Amino acid sequence: MRNKLAALSTVVLVLASPLLWADGENISKVNGSIHVASGRQVGSVETVNGSIRLESSVTAGDIETVSGSIDIGSDSSVGDIDGVNGDVTLERGVKAESVELVNGELRIDEQAQVRGDVTSVNGDIVLARQAQVGGHVENVNGAIELDAARVGNGIKTTNGDIEIGAGSRVDGGIHVEKPDFSMFSSKKHKPKVTIGPDAVVNGTLRFDRPVELRISERATVGKIVGATPIKD
């Protein structure tokens, strides 16, 4: 009997552990966070109420949560990332297919790469040094910041400030859209768009609403529509 109980306890511990999924296995929960240990190879990772944390050098499929943060450890490779409420962080050297977020800050650390689009509704989007996004970067509310980073297919926002830091490159231009009537408040925000020294923006810079546009004398930009730049 004692041996049987010991064996049963071992089985329970294995099943309960969040770190002991089989290679290639999909991971899915309704309630609770998910933690994948360094170096593992798993399928898709999904939870409804809980955060998701992948340690370094993990290979995984799509990553999705409704309520909780998503943290992809350094040098990991994943598919599409989808979040509703919670911050998303791609650490140094991460490779992802795309990122779609509703409410929360998105940070793409040094040398991380997103092959497709990066979109958010409410939250800042920050690209650290040598980070790359192959598609477009878009949000409605929140700052978009590039620090010697690269975007392959344009930047779009409605109410957010944009900072194209020194040494950054944006292909596909910049577009600041006019808000819908329902988005106006008694305190209207005038977006600030700053393009730093040695930054390059290829394509049209189109502004459908008033903005404060500052462009370094050492920056290279395309055609400007809808705003008069202030030279720094």
TrEMBL record:
Domain of life according to the entry: Bacteria
UniProt keyword annotation of Signal present: yes
Keywords: Signal
Record's signal peptide: 1-22
Name of protein: Polymer-forming cytoskeletal protein
